# Entry
Amino acid sequence: MTAERICKLLRLPGLTDYGEALVLQRRLAQARASGQLTDDLLILLEHPRVITLGRGARTANVRTPTELLASLGVQLHEVERGGDVTYHGPGQLVGYPIIDLGRHKKDLHWYLRRLEEVLVEALKSFRITSGRVPGYTGVWVEDRKIASIGVHVSRWVTSHGFALNVSTDLADFDLIIPCGIEAVKMTSVQRETGRTQSIVEAAEAVARSFAEVFDLALEPAELASIR
# Structure
């Protein structure tokens, strides 16, 4: 481990509005690219119920009319990440790494595989054996998808990231065709283990795995210190 390879760990409590988190990560990614932010950063949080459409999204993959989504209190955002349609909500651990791939490896496919590895290793903490499905991005438990990944890279600095279903209400995925994959089965840590699971415990497992996979030393940080 090189002393210079520091990653700030920012854990936001409660539920963070998706629009606010989007503004935050865009600003921090720009700061990382300009050198104003000198260390890599991993943001871990939960969102209220929200559907996001990536650059490759088909609107038909949102099964639910916009008016009904609004009445249900589900936000809808079109964003610059790769991938199709996905859902975020309480009980789902969302990670936004703001890292400079120039300090790691300038290879988007390498980065995606490393994020998958982070989640596969973290799930071992819950005695869940997971892996990849050829042709798809994300992490699966046999034929059930437990984590989604969609990223954006500009000037080799990353934003957006991954979503791990911990104790998520899986019925909410019926609002969409998740990741544009017809008949996909979604699952969660709680469903696979049959036990109530803590989002805090999941965040700790993911943070440890992230540090190991990317060879980084994590340093806890407060939002005020990196604004």
User: Anything to note?
Assistant: The radius of gyration is 17 Å. Residues 18-34 form the longest helix (17 residues). The chain has six helices and eleven strands.
